[in-house]
Amino acid sequence: MHRSNSFLLGLLTLLFVIVPGNSLAHDPIFGLGPHTLFKGGVEYHASTFQAEAGDRKNARYLLRLKYGLTSNWTIGIATPYVFQQGVGPDREGLGATSIATKYRFWRKDGLGLQESASLSLTAILDNGANEISSGATDYVTGLTYGYEGRKWYRWAAMRYRNNGTNGLGLDRGDKVLVDLVGGIRFKQTGYLEPDWVWMIELNGESSERDSLNGLALANSGGVEWFASPGLMWTYRNFAIKTGVQIPISSDLNGTQNNTDYRAILELELHR
Q1: CB burial of residue 228 (10 Å; 0-12, 13-18, 19+)
Q2: Which end of the chain is more exposed for a tag (fewer CB within 10 A), N or C?
Q3: Whole-prediction pTM value?
Q4: pLDDT band at residue 189 using 50, 70 and 90 as cut-offs
């Protein structure tokens, strides 16, 4: 996947030339958080994701743009470039565009802390390259809660992914995702100082079996759980987030390969 290096360099260059602005809040790395942008705020995001499961390898390089319609309502759009190995010939191309919205319906502020809860909806469009496209539009709904203090953090989220049926009659099984996250800032810092937050996530995924023209496919669906250590470094309005998902339990149907690992590196800038 060496051809992806120039693409990643382009993502990083685009992110760093944007002029800084306001400070940013925190969300977990793999899970969903309740954070929304301030009114008129913009988030620029670039990330690289790698995963392996047996002889299957995947890489994704993604650009995302978010905008704060109000302080409680954020919308966003993201487009990935995807590389796949281990399923027939190597494949690559633009992935499916996702359009997302998040609405924070509850917020409680205290001395040095904030609690909030949000609802989210994401549409994953059927517009990717033919080589990697699923051939259907998917929808993800989510509910998330977060607590952010000067030292301690915690998040909880549940998402439901409804996968569509493509033109060949393949219906990929729907999926439920559960995230429980804890975080700690060992040293309290000021706004003008670099800030470190360490996290540990418990991520669970339960998938229904795929079906083809109404017939369930044996080698599909099941449950996986991951322990996911992560680190977030922030300086004013810029953040670097990185983490790795380590499988701790798996009950997949049929002869599917268990996930070996998933890793991510994210860059975010708010203005």
Answers
A1: buried
A2: N
A3: 0.90
A4: confident
